[in-house]
Amino acid sequence: MEKIIARINELSRKNKTVGLTAEELVERDELRRQYLANFKRNFRDQLDTIKWAEDEENEGGSIKH
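^ that's the sequence the OP posted. Answer follows.
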């Protein structure tokens, strides 16, 4: 992932100074897609591990009010 981020940053700097070729634009877009897909997957995994306090209180069949 670090290599992807480094390359995205490199292309971003180049785009601001001299611009990107058509091939570099395609590469940048693909790298961004990969980065976002990885970010979403990691975020979803984190959300899946969250236990809500309300759910833990209700485990075992008793509901506390």
